[in-house]
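Notes to self after the Tuesday call (sharing in case useful).
The group wants a holo model before anyone commits to mutagenesis around the pocket. I volunteered. Ligand is magnesium ion. Logging inputs and output together so the record is complete.
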Amino acid sequence: MTNDQRTSAQRWSAGRIADILLHAEATTTSRTSLSAEWPALTLPVAYEAQDIALAARKARGEIVTGIKLGLTSRAKQRQMGVDAPSVAWLTDVMALPAGDPVPRNRLIHPRAEPEIAFVMGRRLVGPGVTAAEALAAVDRVVGAIEIIDSRYAGFKFTLEDAVADNNSSGVYVTGPFLRRPEDLDLALEACLLEVDGQIVDTATGAAVQGHPAEALAFAANTLAERGHAIEAGWTVLTGGMTDAIAVEPGARVAAHFTSLGSITIAGG
Ligand code: OOG
Ligand code: MG
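Result:
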């Protein structure tokens, strides 16, 4: 081992990565990819950093409200150049009341993406959870707009970088209708994404791993590897259905769903 390698091995750790990214979030300053500086950033270390950051969020009083899937659709995977989904944490400070504008003062470069979300009726624990079992644990389905915000300049990151950064968590707003899963065909649930009254993208629920319940099962099974369950009452964002679009100041972003109603958010 050279001196340089030894220094960098001592310098980098999951805890340090969690600190760096929480600081970037708190000060709304972006930085370059961590994996470029530390190639040893593996997926398990990235998830460890995510959990350390969650412990810090809880220590300052935040309450876990659920989880968010990342990069579950081909649109998002292509846009970000990453070919695998991942899971991250949602807390109460990320839940934006309907009607509130995008809180730009808290965000670096917000992007909006429409999502199908679940509200869990029962605890769901992997491994080995199937999509059918996952859906059976869901109480209600709701539309959502997630406002993501990467701590990496230009949203340039690897899967490991994004996982360490809590899957670019920002804020999320949920829609007006809480439907029972058995009353919908979620693969066929369509969404129109509009900016300032113009349709910019469309997708159906099938964009999300073939069915959003597949994403939920993936989340349960992935979380189980670290000893976590998905708890009753939690919200699960199943991942952006379309490309995420930059939210400019003064813009009006709307997601119109077939059965889950419409959500509009002002760019702030
Ligand atoms: C990372 C993942 C974001 C999703 O739904 O794909 C995400 C990113 O694209 O910045 O929440
Ligand atoms: Mg998302």
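Two things stood out.
Helices lie at 3-11, 14-26, 34-37, 43-59, 74-80, 131-136, 159-164, 212-224.
Residues 125 and 198 are 41 Å apart (CA to CA).
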